[in-house]
Every structure is written in C-alpha cells, then in structure tokens.
Amino acid sequence: MNDTAPPPPRPRLARLKVDHTAIVENWRFFKTQAPGAAVAAVVKADSYGLGCVAASRALAQAGARTFFTATSAEALIVRKALGEGPQIFVLNGPAATDLDLFAQAKLTPVLNSLAQIKLWDARGSAALHIDTGMNRLGIGPDELTRAALALKDTTLALIMSHLACANDLKHEMNAVQLKRFIDAATLFPKAPLSLAASAGAMIGPDYHFDLIRPGIGLYGSCALDADNPSLAAAATIEAPILQVRDVQAGESFGYGATASAPQKMRTATVALGYADGYLRSLAGAGYGVLAGGRRPVLGRISMDLIIIDVTGCAEAAPGVMVEFLGPNAPLNDIAARAATSPYEILTTFAGTVRKIGARA
Known about the structure:
The chain is an alpha/beta fold. The chain folds into two domains: about 20-220, TIM Barrel, CATH 3.20.20.10; about 235-355, Lyase, Ornithine Decarboxylase, Chain A, domain 1, CATH 2.40.37.10. It has ten helices and 18 strands. The strands form five sheets. A seven-stranded parallel sheet has the order 3-4-5-6-7-8-9. Strands 1, 11, 14, 17 and 18 form a five-stranded antiparallel sheet that branches. Helix 3 packs across helix 4 and helix 9 (about 330-335) packs across helix 10 (about 340-355). The protein starts with 14 loop residues before the first strand and ends in a 5-residue tail after the last helix. The mean pLDDT is about 95.
C-alpha cells in the first residue's frame, strides 16, 4: 500500500507581482501634490486586490499614519498587520454586530447616518461623512443640524465627504460640492476636514483641506478622464504560453469563430482567461507584451485560455511569460480597452489572480 500523499493541486498559472516600492512612491507623489495636508492610504478591498497586509506595512514604514478600509473586518486585518499605532477609519461605519470590535481593535468609524450616530452613542472618537451630492452614503443637508446636536459629546476625528465627478477636473459638480462641504463644515469648527481622494487631490489646493485619501492612486492610476499623472505600476500580471502554432489564412480563432487570420500567422495560446479575472470585453481589444512588443488578443477570451498574435516573434515558446498588466501594459490603457475603470481592472483582474494563488 502506498501511503505517499498525493501532490497538491497545480495552481492556476497566471501570476501577480506586487511592487510595494511603487506603492510607496505613489504615496509620496501625493505628498508632493498636497504639501499642506496629511496623506492617508486607502487599503479597502484588499488594497484594490493587491494585498492589504504587505501594502499597509510598506506604507506605514514609509510614514503613513492614517488608513481607510470599507469594513470592520478589513480594518481588523490591517490592525493586526500594523499594530496599535496608526489610525484606521472604517468607511461603512458601525453595525450593531461589530460595536465591540471597534473598541477592541481601536478602530474609528465613519458615521454615515443619524441611525449610525445613535448606534455609536458617543462611544469614542468618530468621523462624520457629509453627503454633498453623491447621494450614496452620508448625512444629508436636512439632517446636518440634528447630526451636530447628536454629536455634541463625540470627539470628531474627521469631517469628510466624497466627490462624484473628480475624474473630470473641470466638472462643475466639483465646485458645487466644495461649497456645500465648506458650508456644512461650519457646524463642526474644531474637526479636521477631508474631501479629496486620488482624483480630487489633483484638482488643486482648495480641495486638500487637512487630509487627502488616495486609493487607486497608490496602485497606479488617478482614474482621470484625461491627463493622468505618470504613476508607478504597482501590479504586474503575467501568464505562460502553453502552445505555439501556425495558422493558415482564413482559419478562425476561439469560440464563435469571431476572428480569422487575414494571412498565414503564428499564434500563442496563453494560460489566462476570465476565470483569472481577465475581462471578456478585452476580446479583440486587449494585448499581451512579449519581447518588447504588443501582441494582440485574437478572438474571444475563454475561461482558462487566450490566443495572441506572435507572428514574427522568435521568442514565443511554451513556458515563456507574457505580460498582460504592468509597466508595459499600463493600467489606464487596459481599462480603456476593456471599456471600464482602473478600479475594476485591479479588483477583478489583479484581485482574482491574487485569490487563486499568486502572492506578493
């Protein structure tokens, strides 16, 4: 009888490499943009799919003292990674089921409603989120006076709001929200103020106040509609070639035969697909980078496989890695080709690759 344990399952082959030096470099870029403000680090959604533990530690070592997560569960992970020193805000605020966790882990809730203010009941320091036009979370204009009264015994660590249209630096909504924020903040004269996230920080110093909150900017994009600053690529995703083949003119590629060879071509099948988070909308629009050249995606994206054009590329061979996101396949460019945002590319593509095996 053979008692030898079977080998572990072979992991999926796409690989994510996270450059924590790049994340720190991007954080320092925002310090230069807002020299009069503190610069926080938004590490929600597992640092946008790149791994919040290592990212938070790198940022804290560089000097970041304020962090934002979406949920208390995320915040607890960051607290365990960083210890007691940094302040960690929880954007979604407290729920009845996790009030004790806030005290135990020394987390600071962002209070988004009168109900949350009542639930918190002056248990400790808190932030207040004021809705200035997003109509998502936050205290509305008709609730401000009641909120100020209810918070008279609460130490306010921050008054914050969120810009709806900061991706367009000249959008008229930015100025509207700025005025609403300034007017609302007069009810809380002693509290520090924060309005800008990554894109908002680029509008100008009037939007910086006491604290800016870069998120996507730490990981390689300001997600602006135009004139994005050159930020360091924090994520690189590669996958190996499985097979190289010659395809005759007129032959088709992949499911649905949606594309065909206009002439004799050489193609590579790569171990990457939508199970790895590579969006199907990149069919016919995406590319891999190999030997310094962009190799177009041919036909539909499959669950586990993708076909690229490697005609004339002598380096294409089984086992060779192809870059699909990174310094040579920029985040903003891939997002534009997928008709989506850099946020979705990172949290779906990088986030999925990370979850299924790759580690920074």
